[in-house]
Amino acid sequence: MSITKPGERKLQILQALAGMLENPKGEKITTAALAAKIDVSEATLYRHFASKAQMFEGLIEFIETTIFGLINQISQQHKDGIQQVHSISLMLLSFAERNPGMTRVLIGDALVNEDERLQARMNQIMDRIELAYKQALRQAGVQGQIAEAEVAIRANLLTSFVLGRWQRYAKTGFKASPTESAPAQITILL
């Protein structure tokens, strides 16, 4: 019997859940299947998480922390508003490409039969992404790169573009790369 350090098992559970979400068929994930995948009992899962919803919350927290940490870095590294928008867009698409299971959480597919507050939380994340676009586009407006009156419209368009690319990636069984032709498409959108 191997001894795991505190927090390791929790991480192992979340990694296994994310891995199971990479299944292109998108079948409903049960705690029994998740426990079997990492060779533990369901009781072990429930020692670390009170519910399956809490497991998904763990994935959502990872997504949120990662994405907004990277958006903050981009905002600090690039003072040019249009460059910020390009970098944020490519980061969001690359994140999905590197994390197919997380993409199913981002688009809400993995949350369909789960607690509705999880989808509400993902909707808040999408609102925050749109807000990040607005901030970068306001910067571009101040810099004379775009009309300031277009900030909200462009932010919504870019958010919809990213969401659409994520959706297509998941719906094609992770075959249609979200980053393919993305730099040129983002340039056209701007």
From TrEMBL:
The cross-references to SUPFAM superfamilies, in alphabetical order and at most eight, read: Homeodomain-like (SSF46689), Tetracyclin repressor-like, C-terminal domain (SSF48498)
Keyword line: DNA-binding
DNA-binding listed as a keyword? yes
Q: Which Pfam families match?
A: SlmA-like_C, TetR_N
Q: Which domain of life is it from?
A: Bacteria
GO MF annotations, alphabetized: DNA binding
Q: Which Gene3D superfamilies match?
A: Tetracycline Repressor, domain 2
The transmembrane segments are: none
Q: Which residue range or ranges hold the HTH tetR-type domain?
A: 7-67
| Name of this protein | Nucleoid occlusion factor SlmA
The species this protein was found in: Undibacterium fentianense
